[in-house]
Amino acid sequence: MSRREGLSFSTQLESDYATLAGLVAAMLDASRSIHCMRDPTRGGMSTTLNEIAGQSRVGIRVEEESIPVREEVLGACEMLGFDPL
Question: For 14-62, how does the pLDDT look when each residue is reduced to its tens digit (9 = 90+)?
């Protein structure tokens, strides 16, 4: 989005995308009682947790200050008007 909007940052922001096949295989090898997996890439963590809670008919309490978010990410989100979560 920053490239599309012609924005640049003084720090190097890098995508952390990677294939999840190996991780998912290891998780399923460790436990067959996994009920769901979600990719929060587009909607963010908050949306994903809200969907899981709604479908499970439970509540989820999140302590935002306990979630690590890099300063570079916070700065970029502030510039673009996004909530990093």
Answer: 666 778 899 999 999 999 899 888 888 778 899 999 999 999 999 999 9
Q: What are phi and psi of 30, to 5 degrees?
A: -75, -35
Instruction: Name 9's Cβ contacts closer than 8 Å, sequence gap at least 6.
Output: 2, 72, 75, 76
Angstrom CA distances, 52 to 3, 7, 65, 72, 82, stand at 32, 34, 21, 29, 22
Q: Are 60 and 49 in contact (CB under 8 A)?
A: yes
Confidence (pTM): 0.61
Tokens standing for 61?
């309490």
Query: What's the rounded Cα separation, in Å, for the pair 3 and 28?
Result: 38
